Amino acid sequence: MPTRHSRTPFRSTVRALAAVAALAIATAEVPALATPAPPPPIKAPTLERIDAVLRARDYAEADKLIAERLKVDPDDPTLLYNHACVLAQLGRLKEAEAQLLASIRKGFDDLDHLESDPDLDPIRDGRVYTSIMEARDRIKARKPAKPAAPRTRAPAPDPLARWKDAHGDAYRYEIDAEAGVAYATFLDETSHARMKETLERLERHLVEAYFRKAPDEQALIAIVRPSDAARYLDRPEIRGMYLHRERRLVARDTGQSLQHEFVHLVHYADMERLGQTHPIWMQEGLASLYEDYSFREDGSVEFHPNIRFNFARKQVLSDTARAWRELTSLSADDFMKDAERHYPQVRAMFEYFARERKLEDFYRAMVATYKDDPTGASAIERAFGEPLGKVELRWRKWMRERGAVDDRVEPGDPSLGILGDDVGDGVRITSFAPGSAARAAGLRVGDVIQSVAGSPVRNKDELVLAIARLRLGESVEVRFRRSGEETALMVLPRPLGR
Q1: Each residue of 132-187: pLDDT tens digit?
Q2: Strand 172-176 relative to strand 181-185: parallel, antiparallel, unpaired?
Q3: Which end of the chain has the lower number of beta carbons within 10 A, N or C?
Q4: CATH topology of domain 156-275
């Protein structure tokens, strides 16, 4: 079922599909749809929450949430389509057929997706589904008497206007037409500018390396206030999400999740131009690769192992990592069902692609081979010039030999001796441990740490990784913000717990 990848329908296609819906209704008995009731005076579930429940395959909860959302948004074709999928999986087949027809009448036009969507299997032999597909085939076979008029796309949503309507002056707003993005953040001017500069440079790199051009349609990047986060991010552990249907990226801070979701934003725009939907393992592998990276002096990118690497290495050492042929063939649903296992592995695979200087070759090969092999397995073989199994064996050898990444600060390890809270663009010090090195160097409660030894610190996870890289006896620069002013101090780390 389409969730965050949903396409915006084309007007000309919608008109044709309206006829499809009429034909299907005439040739099948389905329950009549009631006229939508006036919106109730309740807060409807967010699309993000619905998306999360759909990906979790919780059909009973999804049915309840979509039904509530449809009370205030009854003409949303993707919601109607997703409801049809949910009802089909729940065994409520007549209702599923009715919602499927309603989705087409309201503009759902991705019949190629409909044809391959396993969630509709329970109604695939019914008259409604059969009539829709037969009518589609007749429309495709019909030869126009004169050249068809150019297809005009329905107006894209204005995510910035929606955000302003919802939040007013509580955010800092900016539009970057050249980059194809708009911003809504609660950051101060300096941090906002730093975030924007980081994403602009990342976008230039992504366009040059893979995607050819910036997004055609404006998308919103929002660094959300903690008080607003639950409205867009369903659970505290979800740090960011990009919904392509809404052209909206929401993140809690400017760290790894923002970079991960920004890669999705630019990648989805390229897939839309290409008319391709790249496999989930590739989408998430590429996006997670850019969670931790830096630019070298020559402008090339260096990717750094993060906490995911150790999980992936343990899988390789225990021989529980999925075989690449199996992994590349997983559906999006099966991939997400075991996401904690799959995300580390695909990031480690893309780290290896980068080490072998095959990243750009792989993406070009993916685009070229997509029609014949949408799994991406053939793209790996073309990029490396050898069979998939042979590439996988060399990756496994590299994983074993590379060694684990230090991602913890344990007693006796170098430490700054601080506790803190995330504030969107760093970690605010809330207290000091006994014998704190940071306090001895002159830092204070309320200071916001922004980098340690040159490593950016935008949340507590990044702070832990930065500290884990420190060595006893070596002073490091700690950059921080105090009373709106940014400055730096040299700190000599001390052993934790001593």
Answers
A1: 877 777 666 654 545 544 444 445 568 899 899 999 999 999 998 888 899 999 99
A2: antiparallel
A3: C
A4: Glutaredoxin (3.40.30)
Q: Hey, what amino acid is at 247?
A: R
* Domain 11-141 class, CATH top level: mainly alpha
Return the structure tokens found at 93: 């087949």
Dihedral in degrees, nearest 10, Cα atoms 215, 259, 264, 119: -150
Q: What is the dihedral of CA 307, 313, 318, 320, to 10 degrees?
A: 80
Is residue 2 predicted with pLDDT exceeding 70? no
Tell which residue, 271, 231, 267, has the closest CA to residue 250. Answer: 231
Q: What angle do CA 49, 51, 57 make, to 5 degrees?
A: 105
CB 51 within 8 A of CB 246: no
Domain locations in the chain as residue ranges:
11-141, 156-275, 414-495
Please state which of the four CATH numbers 2.30.42.10, 3.40.190.10, 3.90.230.10, 3.40.50.620 is assigned to the domain occupying 414-495: 2.30.42.10
Q: Average pLDDT in the 430-445 region?
A: 94
- CB of 412 within 8 A of CB of 498? yes
